[in-house]
Design brief:
rRNA-binding; about 35% helix; cytoplasm; GMP Synthetase, Chain A, domain 3; Rossmann fold; 3-stranded mixed beta sheet; 7-stranded mixed beta sheet; cell membrane; alpha/beta; 2 domains; ribosome biogenesis; about 300 residues; 10 strands
Length: about 300
């Protein structure tokens, strides 16, 4: 038996949800990027210590839904609000509480969530304590009795967060093994790594209408020396986007493939042979069947 708590991370895109998960686990599980909408799935990240197991659910950032894909991503975040034992609402220290934040807070209140904590992220980016105090005061006025700050330069802030979360935990059989960091498969992680590397290499040249499909994933689990063979397709919305992703003489897709392969080999602990191709699919972000096929 352990103390168990399912914790949902909620907030606008790019407020530090994935960074929080990675720092709590001390392992890069979720995509971290300066660009919005990099998380597209509810990724479960599992924290273990001797007495507790805390399951963090890293959700897509809630944002204005322009396409069917955007609506689907928002729905994933809303489902987490409803089902989590504790909801953490995240807002960066270097940004004021805006309309997007208030929209999400209203959603939390609509679901009548009692167990909720406001987290001010990126506190290491703000030197002025008055700014932090003002933000904490505003969040308390919006209904959060507990407000905590976290920052990657202050490791103790993450220990303080874990300590507070344990107040909401309950005794139960641990749903996951002690050495398990996530409920995601290697195939899923391969898809996320490819998308992360693509986003980092393409910057804002290609919007987040890019999708990854892992078409083949072959691993000989009985042979640690044989490489994992992965074939994947990057879908974009236009021929012009395809040209950007491929690059001059294939230079960009080669860079993406090389960097993704290196990271996969490090994460999986085995050599990886990665083969990428780029295809155009103009309406995938607004097509129910294609969104499901892409795994969203």
């Amino acid at each position: 038996m352990k103390k168990i708590c399912y914790v949902g991370l909620i907030g606008r895109p790019n407020v530090g949800k994935s960074t929080l998960v990675n720092n709590v686990l001390d392992f890069e599980l979720s995509i971290v990027s300066n660009l919005a909408q990099t998380t597209r799935d509810n990724i479960k990240a599992i924290y273990n210590d001797e007495e507790s197991q805390i399951i963090f659910i890293d959700t897509p950032g809630i944002h204005k839904a322009e396409y069917l894909l955007s609506k689907k991503l928002n729905e994933k975040s809303y489902s987490t609000i409803e089902t989590a034992d504790l909801v953490l609402f995240l807002s960066p220290a270097n940004e004021e509480i805006g309309a997007g934040d208030k929209f999400i807070i209203n959603k939390i209140n609509e679901f009548n969530i009692k167990n909720k904590i406001a987290i001010i992220t990126k506190v290491d980016l703000v030197d002025n304590q008055e700014v932090l105090d003002k933000k904490a005061k505003t969040l308390k006025e919006l209904g959060f009795n507990i407000v905590l700050g976290v920052g990657i330069k202050y490791k103790q802030t993450y220990f303080n967060l874990i300590k507070e979360i344990k107040n909401y935990a309950y005794e139960a059989e641990a749903p996951y093994e002690e050495d398990q960091l996530s409920d995601t498969s290697l195939r899923f992680m391969a898809k996320e790594i490819i998308r992360e590397i693509a986003i980092k290499n393409l910057y804002d040249e290609v919007p987040h209408s890019i999708a990854i499909s892992v078409d083949e994933f072959k691993e000989d689990e009985n042979d640690n020396f044989s490489p994992i063979i992965i074939q994947a397709t990057l879908f974009v919305k236009s021929n012009s986007q395809k040209g950007i992703v491929v690059g001059k003489n294939g230079s960009k897709i080669k860079t993406i493939s090389m960097n993704a392969r290196k990271k996969m080999s490090h994460v999986f602990g085995k050599n990886v042979n990665l083969f990428l191709r780029v295809k155009v699919d103009q309406d995938w972000v607004d097509n129910e069947q294609k969104i499901k096929k892409a795994g969203y």
